[in-house]
Each structure stands twice: as C-alpha cells, then as structure tokens.
Specification:
The protein has two helices and two strands. It is of the alpha+beta class. A two-stranded antiparallel sheet has the order 1-2. The longest helix has 49 residues.
Length: 105
Amino acid sequence: MGGLLLTRRAQSTLEYAIIISAVIAGLAIMGIVWFRGAYQGRLKSASDEIGEQFDTEATYSSYTTRRNSNTLEQVTGSGITTTTTEDVYRSGSDVTDAFSARKGK
C-alpha cells in the first residue's frame, strides 16, 4: 500500500509540473505576440509622424545623360600611348506625387 501512495504523489507532482510548464509556455508565447504587435504599432506611428514615404507608383523620373569622350593617341619610337578622357553630364529631376497616387487606395 505504501508504494501505491508514493506513486500517486509522484504522479500528482508530475501533473502539476506539466500544467505549470504549459501555463508558463502559453504566457511566454502571448508575451512575444503582444510585444511584436506593440513594436510594429510604435514603428508605424513613428513613420506616420515623419510623413508620406517613398512610393514607386507615385515617383516619376526624367533624366538626360550626355557623354563626351576624347581619345589622344601618341606614336613614339617606344610604342603607342593612348589617353582617354570622358566627361559625363546628367540633368533631370524626380517628381513625387504621393497624395494623388494614394487617392485610389
């Protein structure tokens, strides 16, 4: 009889340990999910305070690139020396119209 009572106490202790572990694991998972949601909420709030963000549908670019290349070759008794210079000019602009692009969204 004494062995049966000792076995039941051990089983009850094990059951309590499993229940407590399950509750702690559930609380830990809930905490992680809550923290993730709170963090994303703060991040969105901070980005909304900054203003409109870059939108690929609302940004238009127009650039013109002009390249000038000059090559100078000098022939001497020891060989040919080649020197190349290149000038690059770029002009244009970016236009962002974030408010009109978001009207349809």
